[in-house]
Specification:
This protein has 302 residues and is an alpha/beta fold. Helices cover 46% and strands 9% of the residues. It contains 13 helices and 8 strands. The chain has a 4-stranded mixed β-sheet. Strand 1 and strand 2 form a beta hairpin. Helix 1 packs parallel to helix 5, helix 5 runs antiparallel to helix 6 and helix 11 packs across helix 12.
């Protein structure tokens, strides 16, 4: 039920301010479908509904240790062959693996079942710590609430940072977490006031991206040593301060490229890069295209 709620929340209606999606839940046996909460869902669409889908997401199910029905595997393979994006949330990755779609690819799933996936499908490189793994037209995500990260990544990739950020704001979520960020954090709940100070510092950094923001300055504002700050930061976020800032700067640059006609030089300044050349180098390295090409993909601005 959590997985159904996540995809419905992200791809369902968000009011007139955001475009809607033609969203449907499908099953190989339409009718009442049992759930882990004991409350059945009535699903009216069969697998034929997948024939026109641009995106297919395989959701987790309790019987994932047994391969799905052949009709399900055939429908997933057909969608991929047709050119659709095929994704999986949590142990939904087992369905993609059973269909042969993960052979020779990297993938992830819920950390608890990553070893089982790797054992059963040795031709798949399983990355147990990743939030999601993007292999082009095959995307897999970790378990539980990481389904939000997967869905927001898909929105960001296909429709841009502005759309993903708007949906994230609507459902009150962080707009972006890197796929390589750890699934499981040793101390996800603050243990003392230092984590509260850390949260305040992160909020301040978001509002001051135009500044250099060295780790020493962030640590000073958190009233910590650099070593303690780095350790607490990684425990709280699953990534390093440098990686977090880089992701935040690039995400902010994406949204400005999509939604404004500001020169690239000004965007670089606003997100904290010393020059347009530095922004371009980071953009090409992390996004695969230069900023101006990215802008042309989402706007008519030259």
């Amino acid at each position: 039920m959590l997985a159904v709620g996540i995809v419905t929340e992200v791809f369902g209606p968000h009011g007139e301010a955001l475009p809607g999606f033609d969203f449907a839940l499908c099953t190989d046996r339409p009718g009442p479908v049992p759930t882990d909460f004991g409350v059945p869902l009535t699903i009216t669409h069969g697998l034929d509904r997948l024939a026109s889908a641009d995106l297919v997401i395989a959701l987790p199910w309790t019987g994932f240790r047994t391969p799905p029905a052949p009709a399900v595997l055939d429908a997933l393979s057909a969608a991929h062959e047709r050119g659709s994006l095929v994704a999986a949330h949590c142990v939904g990755a087992f369905a993609l693996a059973a269909a042969g779609l993960l052979d020779g690819r990297r993938a992830t799933t819920h950390w608890r079942f990553a070893e089982l996936l790797a054992h059963r499908h040795p031709n798949t490189t399983v990355e147990p710590d990743a939030l999601y793994v993007d292999e082009g037209r095959i995307i897999t995500g970790a378990g539980a609430a990481a389904g939000f990260d997967l869905c927001l990544h898909l929105l960001r990739r296909e429709y841009g940072a502005s759309m993903a950020n708007a949906v994230a704001r609507d459902v009150v979520l962080p707009s972006h977490r890197d796929g390589g960020q750890a699934q499981y954090l040793a101390a996800p709940v603050p243990e003392d006031c230092r984590d509260e100070r850390l949260a305040e510092v992160l909020a301040w950094a978001r509002e001051n991206l135009h500044q250099p923001l060295p780790v020493a300055e962030l640590a000073r504002r958190a009233v910590m040593s650099k070593r303690s700050f780095a350790r607490r930061f990684t425990a709280a976020t699953g990534t390093t301060p440098h990686a977090w800032l880089r992701s935040l700067r690039l995400s902010s640059a994406e949204e400005l490229l999509e939604t404004t006609d500001l020169p690239v030089e000004e965007i670089a300044r606003r997100v904290g890069y010393g020059s347009a050349a530095v922004l371009r180098e980071q953009f090409v390295r992390r996004r695969g295209v230069p900023p101006r090409s990215y802008r042309r993909s989402f706007t008519n601005t030259p």
